[in-house]
Amino acid sequence: MGKDGTSIPDEEWERFLRDAEAGTPGAPEEPSARARMVSTRLAGESGRPEGWRTHRPPVRSGGKARYFVAFFVLVALLVVALDPGRVTGWFAGGGGSGDTAPLAAESERPAGPPATEAAAQRPTLDDPFKGSPAVTWGDGVAALSLPEARATGWMSKTQVARALERSRDFLASSNLDAGVLRGERPTEAIALLNPHQKDVQDYVSAAFRTPSAEHDPLKLFSRFTPSKVRLVGDVVKTRGRIMYREGKRGAVEVTADVTYVYPVVRVSEGSDEVARTIVRREIVMGWDDPAKIITESGTFSLISYRSDTANGGCDNHTGFFIPAFAAERTVGGGSRDGDAADPYDRSTSMDALVPDGVEKGCGIATRL
Q1: Which of 86, 88, 320, 324 is the most exposed place for a label (fewest CB within 10 A)?
Q2: 288-314 burial string, b = 16+ CB within 10 Å, else e?
Q3: Which helix (H) or strand (E) holds 256?
Q4: What are the residues facing 340 on neighbouring strands?
């Protein structure tokens, strides 16, 4: 304490101590307890004491490493932006045994068939798509992306978006619905067909009443006989495109070109051999202007439909797919008059595959 009872500042004590150490005349020979405390603190510090208002920013570690990480992330984003196809190839490959990264959505017809290096691998109950290009395809309706909607024909942008969604609903209810795959009547899908389109309604009625070559429900709907086979798991692999344009009388024409892969097993106890039925369908749906065509809200007119099936049964007009298993299979169950063809190959147009919509006899599938 000073003589007047006030506390002596630390700076003053520090000066006294320095003077004492330097031999300055009049310096105290024996500092007080406070002086010893300040002296001890000074001796333990290498620099000047930090004032309470002084800001010392924290030392940042790893600064250079972060700059390198940011640089490589920027380069990777640039590569993706300039060449997304190459990046997809790095991770998706061609369906090899150790490469199951999902493919990007199909935006255009591919240039060639998918790779075949994994074809020798056999499917199992735990991995029903093993050895198939479908292992990298998307699951069910989630893989069927819709194009961006824009005002077309008589429809506004919002109406086109709704028509696209309903078109995809038809694909799901006719080819992916669990009940329909078990052989049930596709009620939801039929409800989307224009009830005033008499030829289509007659076809559907006859197809489910008395299936025949002329009235075959398998031309539009995927069904299996529940007493003979069942689907393995609850996933159907799909790959395809949905497109649209303005059609006749201002209608919005939606075209879906989709391949479906169905893994099945016999229902008999102990059966574990997995077979696959592969169906490619092209369906053109017309969303008509009700001012020009008699229709009902929320329904479309069926403009055209054609399909190509591998391992669905040769000359089969039962109304159900009949997949063959290894011991029964002499040909692949395709539909091309004995020609060998790859059912996973989406590079061939449906015009070339099924010319004039006329499906031919049994062919050979190069892989299933």
Answers
A1: 86
A2: beeeebebeeebbbbbebbbbbbbbbb
A3: strand 252-266
A4: 364
Whether the Cβ atoms of residue 267 and residue 229 lie closer than 8 Å to each other: yes
Q: Are 287 and 323 in contact (CB under 8 A)?
A: no
Contacts of residues 36-39 at CB distance under 8 Å and 24 or more positions apart, as own/partner, are: 38/10, 38/13, 38/14
User: Which of the 8 DSSP states describes residue 311?
Assistant: S
Position of tokens 């391949």?
A: 259
Distances (CA, A) of 328 to 15, 141, 276, 364: 105, 31, 13, 14
Q: Which tens digits make up the pLDDT trace of 276-311?
A: 999 999 999 999 999 999 999 999 999 999 999 999
Phi and psi at residue 217, in whole multiples of 5°? -65, -20
Amino acid of residue 266: R
CA dihedral 83, 101, 123, 345 (to 10 degrees): -20
Q: Which helix (H) or strand (E) holds 48?
A: none
Dihedral angle over CA of 250, 256, 257, 262, nearest 10 = -160
Long-range contacts of 157-164, Cβ-Cβ distance < 8 Å, separation of 24 or more: 160/244, 160/252, 163/244, 163/252, 163/254, 163/287, 163/300, 164/242, 164/244, 164/254
Q: Beta partners for 286?
A: 253, 301
> Two tokens at 286?
């017309």
In angstroms, rounded to a whole number, what is the distance separating the alpha carbons of residues 189 and 201?
Answer: 12
Run of H or E including 248: none
CA 264 to chain centre: 22
Give residue 317's identity as a one-letter amino acid code. H
pTM: 0.72
Exposure on the CB side of residue 254, measured as CA atoms within 13 A: 31
Cα–Cα nearest to 281, from 215, 223, 350, 335: 350
Measured between alpha carbons, how far is residue 297 from residues 104, 149, 195, 198, 220 in Å?
34, 19, 10, 17, 22
Average per-residue pLDDT in the chain?
80
